[in-house]
Specification:
- The chain is mainly beta and 151 residues long.
- It has one domain (4-148): Macroglobulin (MG2) domain (Immunoglobulin-like, Sandwich), CATH 2.60.40.1930.
- The chain is built from 2 helices and 9 strands; from the N terminus they run αββββαβββββ.
- The chain has helices at residues 4-20, 69-72, and strands at residues 32-34, 40-45, 48-55, 60-67, 79-87, 90-100, 106-112, 122-132, 136-148.
- The strands form 2 sheets. Strands 1-9-8-5-6 form a 5-stranded mixed sheet. The chain has a 4-stranded antiparallel sheet with strand order 2-3-4-7.
- β5 (79-87) and β6 form a beta hairpin.
- The relative contact order is 0.26.
């Protein structure tokens, strides 16, 4: 018989392994390129649905991410989320919410990129964590590197 402490450790370790498999883009993947002809990105990714777009007329950038039902179904409590947008490795925007419902919450961000729009290697990093089961947690990380061109 396993002790309760060992069972909890196994649940926590399983949750950690599951969390490592979730994310939108491979860490070393080539960045997505926004162009005037292709200003939108939409994809069902491991863990949810991700969108991002550039409005060239105003330099407005927007992104959203919603967990899919299979990923959020085991949630037993609220989720903490944070999202950071980087320009050439330097922080450009931060957003966080400490207690949102993982089954319905949609991360949504927007920012005017202004004169930096085409001068940066952009990287959006989203980190979400919520409890599952008795003692486990699930973590979902999304990494979306992108560049914006005028051609």
């Amino acid at each position: 018989m396993f002790s309760r402490a060992i069972k909890r450790s196994v649940v926590a370790a399983t949750a950690a392994v599951v969390a490592l498999g979730l994310g939108a883009v491979e860490a070393n993947a080539a960045p997505w390129t926004f162009t005037p002809q292709n200003p939108d990105y939409r994809a069902d990714v491991s863990g949810g649905h991700f969108t991002s777009q550039i409005r060239y007329s105003s330099t407005a950038w927007q992104a959203s991410f919603k967990l899919d039902a299979a990923t959020s179904a085991p949630a037993t409590g609220t989720m903490s989320e944070k999202a950071d947008l980087y320009c050439n490795g330097r922080s450009f925007m931060h957003d966080s919410h400490p207690a949102v419902n993982p089954k319905v919450y949609v991360i949504h961000m927007s920012k005017m990129l202004e004169d930096r729009m085409t001068r940066c290697n952009w990287d959006l990093k989203i980190h979400e964590t919520f409890p599952i089961g008795e003692d486990g947690t699930r973590t979902v990380n999304v990494d979306f590197p992108f560049i914006v061109t005028l051609v």
